[in-house]
Structures are given as C-alpha cells and as structure tokens.
Amino acid sequence: MNEDAVKKMKKLISISLEKEEEKRLMKDFNKIIDYVDKISEIEDDNIDYLENSRELNKLHHEDSVEVFENTEEIKKNFPKKLDDYLAVPKYIGE
Amino acid sequence: MKYESIIGLEIHTQLKTNTKAFCHCKVEFGQKPNTNICPVCMGHPGSLPVVNEKMIEYALLLGRATNSKINTKTKFDRKNYFYPDIPKNYQITQYDYPICYKGNLKIALDEDNYKNIGITRIHMEEDTGKVFHDKNEKNTLIDYNRAGVPLLEIVTEPDMRTPEEAYLFLTELKSTLRYLGISEANMEKGELRVDVNVSVKKKNEDEYGTKVELKNMNSFKAVKEALEYEIKRQKKLIKQGKSDKIKQETRMWLENKSKTKVMRTKEEAADYRYFPEPDIPAFNISEEFIEEVDSIEFELPLEKKERLKSDYQLSEYDASIITSEIDIANYFEDVVAGFEDGKTAANWIINELLNLMNEDDKNINEIKVSADKLASILQLIDEDKISGKIGKKLLKEVYKTGKNPKEIVDEKGWSQVSDSSKLENIIKEVLEENKEAVERYKNGEDKLFGFFMGQVMKKTKGNANPQKTNEILRRLLNQ
Amino acid sequence: MKINNIKDKIKENGLKETISSIIENIKNEDIYNSFLSLNEQNAMKRAEQLEKNGNRKKPLYGVPVSIKDNIAVKNLRMTCGSKILKDYKAPYNATVIKKLKEAGAVIIGKTNMDEFAMGVSNEHSAFGPVKNPLNTEYVPGGSSGGSAASVSGNLVPVSLGSDTGGSVRQPAAFTGTYGLKPTYGRVSRYGLTAFASSLDQIGPIANSIDDIISLYRAIAGKDDKDSTSVDKTLDDYNNIKNSNRKFKIGILKSLLEEDTNVKIKNDYYEVIDRLKKEGHEVVDLKFDKSEYIVPVYQIIAPAEASSNLARFDGIRYGSRKEGTKSKEELVSKTRDLGFGEEVKRRCLVGTFVLSSGYSEKYYKKALIARKMITKSLKEKLNKVDVIATPTTPNMPFKIGEKIENILYMYKSDLFTIPANLSGLPALSIPLYRNDDFYTSMQLMGKPFGEIDLFELGYKIERITGGKK
C-alpha cells in the first residue's frame, strides 16, 4: 500500500502510530491483504441486500417513553464532567 | 437575463416523536444536559438499536403528502466518521434504499401560478448530540439529549431557479410538516436545517455550471440572501471569463458579513464507508401498516387555502395568512363554526388578534381568546349589541382576562344604545342643550355635526350606535 | 465440575457455603489467570437472598457461572480484555445476565479474553495470557480463553463466552470442554460488546452436554432489545438422551486433508467409524470454495469490527489520553495507547476493505462468497442431519510459540468459521485425551437444529466415555 493510502487509512481509523509500530503493522497488513486477495477470484455478482428482509412489526419499538434508570452510571463514566455536560478539550467547531 | 441559476436543497427536519429513533429515550428539549440518555443512544458497548415505528409512520406521511414512491422493502446503513457529538462514531442512516423517492411539492409563485419542485428522496436517520464551544474557556461541552432524535432528510431536485423559489419551497415545506404534525420545523430553533446547492450557467448552454454547497444559514431569509450573494458571485466570475475559479466546494454563509466563504473543498470529502446496518435487518413494511398510515386524514396548506377561499370568499392574501399555520387555520374554522361570516372572522383574526399575539410573542394556542369567545364578540357586533369600536376594546379585554365577552359588556356597561326612541330622546336633549350650536349649524357650519355626535357619545358613554345616531341626528337637524 | 456436583454440594453444605468455597477456590487456584474480576460481594449477597427466599425449583438455582468480560453485568467492570476499558463499569445488564438471574444462577465473576474477542489463543489480552489448565505452558485457545479455562480448571461448572469465528468452540476444544455456538438469533446479543455483528453469538462452555443444554435453555429466546434475535420456540430436550434415532452424518473429507493434525484426524475417524457401526449413515460431501472460508471471514469480521470499535475514543467513557491539542489527537492517541496490536491490525484491514476504491474488490466479493458458502452448507444440510468435522485443525500450542504467526492463527479457525458465516448452530465435543490434551469433534446443524447436535452429541459422549 503506498504512502498516500497509508496516510488515508490512519486518518480513517483514527489511531496514531509510532514509527516502529507503523512499520510492523504495515508489514502484517500487506501479508493479510495478500492472503485475502484470493477473494478476487470469485465471480462478480449482484448482491440483494434486501434478500432476507423481515417483517417490520417483528423488529420495531413502540413510540412510548422508557426512562433509563441508571443515567448516573453513564455520567460516572464520563472522563471529565462540567455541570452536567461532558467536557473535552476545547476545539474549533465546524 | 442571460444566466440561469440551478438550485437544489438538502433539508434535515427533527421529528416530533415521543421517543428517539432507535431507543426509548424521551425526545424533549430544554432539559438539563445529558438527562434523556441511555446505553443505546450513548453508544455504550453491547447496546443495540431498535427502530421507532413512529419515525417510519411520519416518513410515510410525508411521502404521501409529497406523492412520493415508497420503498416498502428497505434498510438502514452505517455512515462511518469520527466526531465527538456522534456517540458510536457512525450514524445510522439510509443510503441506497431511502424510504421515499420521486415525490414533489407544489409552491405558489403567485396567486394562480404554481410550480412543482421535485423531491429526489426522503430518508430516515438519527441526529447527533449538541456541542458548545462558548460555554467554557478551556473546554468544549457536549450534551447528548439530542443524540438519536429521529430526523428526516429531504433532498430536492435542482428545480428551483431563483432564491425566491427556494424561499417559497422552504415556507411550503415547513407549513406541510406542521400541518402533518410530524415536525415543528423551526429553523431558528435548529429543528430544521438547510444546505443549499447552487450553480450558474448561461441560459442557452446545456452544460450545468460547477455546483457549490452553502451551509450555515439560520433562517429562510438567510437562505435567500446567501443564494442571492452566491449567484451574484458566480455570475461575476463567469462574466469575467473566470468560471474555472468556481470550485466544487462547501461555502459558509457569514450572516454578519453578508457573504459566503470557503469551508472545505470536495476533494477532502470524507470516505464514509457505507455498509448495511447489521444490527437492524432489512425489513418489509406491511400493507396493513401502509393502509393505517394512508387512512390518516390530512389537508395540505395549499389545498386548505383554496378551500377557504372558495367556501368563505376569502381573498388570496387573507387565505394565505390564515393557512400559514395549521393552528390559525383550525382556530379560524372553529370561529366560523359559531359565526358564519368568514370574511369578517378572517379580518378580525388577521388585523386585530394576530397583532395582539405578536406584541407578546404568543401563539394562538396560548391565548385566552378562545375561538368561541371571538365568535361571540363578532356576534355581538353583528347584532348591533355593541359597536365595532367597542368590539375592539372588548377583544383586548378578553385577551387580557379570558372572561366571557357578554359578562364584560354587562359589567362595563358597553352595550350599544341602538333603540331608536331612546336615541331620539338623548339626541333631542343634546340639541336642547346646545341651541346656539344648532343655529350655527343651520346657518352652514356643517362641521358642528361632529360636535353633536360627540355630545351624544358623551351622554351614552360612547355606546350610541353610530349609524343610527347619525340617521336620527340628521333627521332631527333637518326638521 | 458439573452442575450436578454443585447441586449436591448445595444440598450438603447450603448455598452460601458452596458459593463461598467456590470463590475461595478461585482466589487460591486460579493460576490460569482466567478471571479478571470476581463478583464476590454481590455473589455472596445473592447466595444469601436465594437461600432465604429463593425458589429452589429454578432450573439454575445456585449455579455459579463465570461470564466473559465482554458481556455487560450491571455496575461491574467490563474490560473486553482491553486497556481502553480498564476502568469502565457497565451501566446495565446484558439480556443473558437477566435471564441467568431469572433462572436462579449466581454470577461469580468476569473472565479473561483476547482483546475485543480478536484472537485464538488468549495471548492478546491486555491483562496477561490465560494458561491452559490441562498444561499451563500451553494456550487455552481464544478468544473465550478465560471462560474455557475456568470450566476446564474446575473453578466453575459453566461459563458464557462469545463466538464470532470459533471463539467458544475452539477454546472448548483446546481445554477439553464442551462449547456451543447457537443458531444466529437464538440468543440475544444485547449487552455483548459487538465484534462482528452479523457473526457474533453468545454460547455456553461446560463439562457435559447436560450442562450445555441447561445453560442454553436459560439464555435462549427472542429479545425486543435485539432486532436480530429470532422468535423460535426451543425444542423439547427431555427425551433425546437415550434415543434410538439413527442419524445421517455428513463429513467433509477434502477439508480435513488440508493440514489437520494427525492425532485429531485419527480420533475423528475412529468416532465416525464407531458411529457407522452403531447404524448411523455417514456421507462424504464435497465442499468446494473451501479455500475462501478464512479469507471471507478475515474480510467481513474486521470490516464490521472496525465500525463497531469506532465508539472507543476516550470521549464518553474509557481511558482518555490527557494533554492533547485537538480532538483528532485526543481520539487517535487514546486509541493508540488503549488498543493492542491485533486490534489495530483488524481496524486497519477492516477499514481498508470498506474504503472507497477497495470495497467492491474486497467487501462486496466477500459478501458474495459468504452467500455461496452459506447456500452450499444449507443445501448439504438438506441431505444430512448434521455435518461433523474436527473442531480445530491443530492441537494447543505453547504460549508465545505462534504469536508472530498471524496467518497460522487465522487458519486455525478453518472448521469453525463456516457456522458463523452461515448462522448455523455448532457444538464442540471433546473426544479422547492424548497426553495432556483432548481431541475434539464439531457438529454443525440445520438452522435452529440444536436438538440434533445435542442428541447426536449424547451418543458420541457415550462412545468416548465423555469427560472423566
């Protein structure tokens, strides 16, 4: 995989890598991709993503409110809290 | 005009369901931060999304109202990207099988001139949390109450040709959403968000110009202004032969500077790696479900406007105002249930009531003048029991106190004196008391007529029926 | 250790005493590093409550169960074997936990695992490898290594693990225990930290088929909180233990010829022969496209995982890297520090195969191949009752021995992956013990055909004598 592609991948997975580790991982990555490349032998075909569709009434939820009783625990897991907001270091938003 | 603007809109609207798109948390605004949350909408490990049937119902309603085709077999997809306001770092949305497609919405360019704006697709997705950069010096604060609230994304065909058309479309869409009761669609409150796509080309050329995306407009007016600016900008560049300087990019509307500015170029566009949402199997919407939705009755704004015009002989202008909000239209129809003269009712609602409401920023559901009370006031005027002038005073009083109009009239002694013999006696009194003025009037000082009227009003505390008083006074003076 | 042993102990010493001794035993004897956290206080409290007021007729009354640490138990730490969640506490109970409690079980603790369920040896845990109780220099298999070791080491009679490409069955085979992956949709995934959503299932590990069935019955069932769970009533297992039914068994000879360990092959064929002699029919089925089994899995599983693991960014929960200068840095440094190498590898591969320009070539093709493999298997299962293969092509290896050899690890899932790709149920049964370790056989069944696995499994258990 060329350098641009590596850069793009790193951004997409949002994992920063030290140089040594990056080298190692890229070697592994290439090995794995070579191995799975076998899949290209498969003939192309259309996939019907809606093939095994189910009835909607077996999977929806009714529009009735259920209050989650343990929101405190969710907030306890916040690495940083200010009043009741979750806090992250300031960044310029879009 | 040598140039043509091609305008398309992408709109996101928050749905007024009770619960979020994929969990049972309450959809509610103005709460303490991070109150309406649960493991599902917070993306905790092991949590799974479950579709809210109301979101589907509302999507189908909008589909019906826009004559859209329906994908009764459909699915959800994941749109993958990292951002602090999106708990799972992917959004559950619909990619290639939107629930509705190929619809349209009619807009009224003027009284009898309509245009159909095509709607490419309508699909369901979930909203993100809210990010605040200005509440704290060193930190950005996040509130996830909004994370997971159901949204409909509506994409139009590039059928609009002027900023005004875009404005009209948005107004009509908002009205429609409110008429259907599926969204409040208030742009200022963030319940409706609009992105615009615009390109300019020479009219006689077939090839479309480069498409520019505009974001960050907070009102319909801002959309119109942003378009006006951007079209001007693009036209200028084309005229100067610099059309290659128009890049396919995203530009932000800067309200305070009244201009657009580059935000990012499309080349850096994110790779969302869409794939079907594995936690929600593809599903069939049953015929029964569709029939249930189809049986829900509604009348769209334009339809209602036409009907009120013909049923009550309302002017185009009045009918437009009455039907601009479903609540006002319903109020109007409640009033005419008790007082048949629609024209008068409309007149009073538009010219008197709405002004009062605007002064204290109330909407028609919050006021104390219920429809039957207004009908009562109009009835009193129609029966000559009070004068029109008193009627306006009475309306203000009912608006303030919510009391029964008839009671107020009695309390304040505002009953109009319309009895001819009574009036005649009072007028005779006035003429007796002002013999000198009568002489002067008979000698040509016509202006004194008003003085006599004033004296009658004084004696009757303003309750004399003006027309009758006028008649009788004229008769007596001419004797 | 089996559930019956526990029931006997409870009769003898009472529930509180039994649970207490189980916990003490774990504290003293868990040299395998199978437990990451013990639920001591809660378990004792629960034992007390159950003893006082509990319904003793409940099917799992008083049974101590260990839970893989990627299944949420309310207010308990859940690490998923990862640094990034080392202090995370689950705010809710997984549905299977609710069901276990309703059945009267006692949650003893959370077990060690390969990080985010990615691995076949439990060497990829941030909290140290798990040792195989049969020989502590060897791996117990993965990713449910801790669960399997806790059962094999007789610390608890039963455990719940998760299986995405073999993660319940393979460690069961390596540790000489039984492991079941139910039909996809039989058991709710609500509360199971997702690895690959279309492949994951929670399954029991135990020391007998009886106990597998007991756990399975307690946890199976449609769950409104999991849209992929299916509404299908369980069969009646009351009369299958000593039935006279004769099975039609499919075998995949050609698949075995590739690199399967000799001991495993021998024991496998011996049991197949014995079954033939007992009157069951054995049919050799051709399985073409077998060379795609592992590549398909190594495309689809990382793809879904890369998306499922995106939520671990240190923002709302988990260990957050302090002192970073931007939101991008916060996330990427947190994930760099928090994830182990195997997880990073899978995220890279998974993101790559979904990315624009490559998803047609890899992801879409993998889906096509998956469909073909599934169709082929289901067609074969129309002709036979079950398909029997060894559970693994290899025997346990020493800790550290294969850790550099990624492809070796991936290929060891050859026999287990097909059941995940096609959603079919599969059961791993220990056969014979050679030296330290057992060889194992896997039975794959029709969709929702767990009863066939159990019924034939009992017959195999009788042939081999079961676990001593």
Describe this entry's structure for a reader.
The complex is a heterotrimer of chains A (94), B (479) and C (468). Chain A has a domain of 38 residues: Histone, subunit A (Orthogonal Bundle). Helix content of chain A is 37%, strand content 12%. Chain A has 3 helices and 4 strands; from the N terminus they run H-H-E-E-H-E-E. Chain A has a two-stranded antiparallel ribbon. Chain A is flat, with a radius of gyration of 23 Å. With 479 residues, chain B is of the alpha+beta class. In chain B, helix 7 crosses helix 9 and helix 9 runs antiparallel to helix 10. In chain C, strands 1-3-2-4-6-5-10-11-9-7-8 form an 11-stranded mixed sheet, sandwiched between helices. Chains in contact: A-B, A-C, B-C. At the A-C interface, helix 1, helix 2, helix 3 and strand 4 of A face helix 10, helix 11, helix 12, helix 13 and helix 14 of C. Strand 1 of chain A pairs parallel with strand 17 of chain B, so a sheet runs across the interface.
SSE topology sketch:
The complex is a heterotrimer of chains A (94), B (479) and C (468).
Chain A: H1 3-13, H2 19-36, E1 54-55, E2 60-61, H3 71-76, E3 81-82, E4 85-89
Antiparallel strand pairs in A: 3-4
Chain B: E1 3-14, E2 51-52, H1 53-65, E3 69-70, E4 73-74, E5 77-80, E6 90-93, E7 100-110, E8 113-126, E9 130-132, E10 139-143, E11 150-156, H2 163-180, E12 192-202, E13 212-215, H3 220-239, E14 249-254, E15 259-265, E16 275-276, E17 283-284, H4 287-294, H5 301-312, H6 316-323, H7 326-338, H8 342-359, H9 371-382, H10 388-401, H11 405-412, H12 420-433, H13 435-442, H14 448-459, H15 466-477
Parallel strand pairs in B: 13-14
Antiparallel strand pairs in B: 1-11, 1-12, 3-7, 4-17, 5-6, 5-16, 7-8, 8-11, 9-10, 12-13, 14-15
Chain C: H1 3-13, H2 15-29, E1 35-38, H3 40-53, E2 64-68, H4 95-102, E3 106-111, H5 145-152, E4 158-163, H6 169-175, E5 178-181, E6 201-206, H7 209-219, E7 248-251, H8 253-257, H9 262-277, E8 281-284, H10 293-308, H11 327-338, H12 341-354, H13 360-383, E9 386-390, H14 406-411, H15 417-422, E10 426-434, E11 437-445, H16 450-464
Parallel strand pairs in C: 2-3, 2-4, 7-8, 7-9
Antiparallel strand pairs in C: 1-3, 4-6, 5-6, 5-10, 9-11, 10-11
Helix pairs in contact in C: 1-2, 2-3, 10-12, 10-13
